[in-house]
Amino acid sequence: KRKEQRRAYSDLSTVARSVSPVRSSSLPPASDSAMDENQVKQILEKQVLTVAKAVEDKLDEEITALDRLDLDDLEALRERRLQQMKKMAERRSRWISLGHGEYTEISEKDFFAAVKASDRVVCHFYRENWPCKVMDKHLAILAKQHIETRFLKIHAEKSPFLTEKLRIVVLPTLALVKNAKVEDYVVGFNELGGTDEFSTEELEERLGKAQVIFFEGEASTNPLKSSTTKRSVRQSETSHSSDSD
């Protein structure tokens, strides 16, 4: 746009200068005029320069305005970006202070405080067996990759109240908690290919479907509708539980 404005000014100046001979040729002969041809040219040239100067000043004002607008836009964008970075840094600091970024074992009595403090929690109910050790390996990796979510483990056999309350039957079971509510479960390896050779990425995708982690994969755009009824961890329930190998 700036180049077009400069080009328009140049064209205007060229046209204006070309007016001089036309105007002078249309004037009466020197003998019938009080001013000779040189005086007429000087007046016309002065007028042309005045008009050209006014046009140039106007263009300079517009260019300055455009430059100022561009700088303002860049400054506004920079300010927004800085604010976003500041907010993210504050969130990361808070997450780390809550224990995010690590795969941590907690006791039954600490569970309720943990899920109230963090918006997203993946809690592994385990026992000392091979399948649970496999799950441990993948969760330890994901805990470091997804600092936005807290990754916990609880020994099911040492937490009878909680396993009964949440109806934990098969081990390993992952309770996927959002905003202090158990939204979904990953029970055993059935949803992970039915084998202990599933990849960390497969588990990550499954957690992404439940929207308990920030997942940029295709699966995260189609949240999984769990058939399990949502239950608040604050709600009291009466049920029976048993563990399987």
UniProtKB/TrEMBL annotation:
Compositionally biased tracts (Low complexity): 13-31
Domain Thioredoxin: 105-191
Gene3D superfamilies assigned to the protein according to its UniProt record, in alphabetical order: Glutaredoxin
Span list, region Disordered: 1-36, 221-245
TM region positions: none
Coiled-coil spans in chain: 52-91
Keywords (A to Z) from UniProt: Coiled coil
Ranges of biased composition (kind: Polar residues): 221-239
Superkingdom of origin organism: Eukaryota
InterPro entries: Thioredoxin-like_sf, Thioredoxin_domain
Protein name in UniProt: Thioredoxin domain-containing protein
Species assigned in the record: Ananas comosus
